[in-house]
Design a protein that fits this description.
Elements lengths: L3 E4 L6 E3 L1 H8 L5 H9 L2 H8 L4 H11 L4 H11 L4 E3 L1 H12 L3 E6 L3 H10 L8 E4 H4 L6 H11 L6 E5 L2 H8 L4 E4 L6 H7 L5
Parallel strand pairs: 1-4, 1-6, 4-5, 6-7
Antiparallel strand pairs: 2-3
Length: about 200
């Protein structure tokens, strides 16, 4: 019987939309290069892991795309929130689950400054009973240790726990240690997929 539900953030509860920032701040002909250099880089993963600061990231990226240095500074100093929008329908589901008595947790790969801002600004974080964020433990999903860390920290039993993520390999990482999983391809499918797992709403 499932008692604990673990949520990823990106594209589960928070829509990740870098195009919002790009449209306002990067010339159209340079957007593809910006995406490849920044959002799809190994440095982006280092930011998630908490082993690279925003200041150092700006310098590294500016070596590759010096013409976009001003945009890089805007992104990391002021505008990272332009890439993040709460998914209101799924936040309603989160609150329903809390009202039904499930213990709720967050497990996400996230940059520290961005996470601290959304945690402070968005009230739905009050629904969580705890969580593990990559930048604090220096581990990334799907590394098995990050799932084990969350289980150990809160005394959770894998067979009583369900994990929801938009990335299949992350769900598979949880399933390898006995946690049930939902691969959420489309955010609007959350409620239906939970019901398919026998979760009361």
């Amino acid at each position: 019987m499932i008692k604990n539900i673990i949520f990823d953030l990106g594209n589960v509860l928070v829509k990740y939309t870098p195009e919002n920032f790009l449209e306002k701040n990067v010339k159209k002909e340079r957007q593809e290069k910006f995406i490849e250099t920044v959002f799809k880089s190994k440095e982006w993963l280092e930011l998630d892991r908490g082993t690279l600061s925003y200041e150092d990231a700006i310098e590294k990226f500016a070596e590759i795309i010096p013409e976009d240095r001003e945009s890089l500074e805007k992104l990391f100093n002021n505008n990272i929130m332009e890439c993040l929008i709460p998914i209101e329908e799924n936040i309603k589901v989160l609150k329903k689950l809390k009202a039904k008595g499930y213990d709720l947790f967050v497990l996400s790969n996230f940059h520290r400054p961005a996470f601290e801002q959304i945690q402070n600004d968005w009230e739905f974080f009050n629904e969580f009973d705890g969580g593990v964020i990559s930048c604090y433990c220096h581990l990334l999903k799907p590394n098995q240790r990050i799932y084990e860390l969350l289980l150990a920290k809160y005394g959770l039993i894998p067979e009583e726990t369900l994990f929801i993520d938009d990335t299949k390999v992350n769900v598979e990482g949880a399933e390898k240690i006995g946690i049930a999983g939902i691969h959420l391809d489309f955010p609007e499918m959350l409620e239906e997929l939970l019901k398919n797992k026998g979760i009361e709403l």
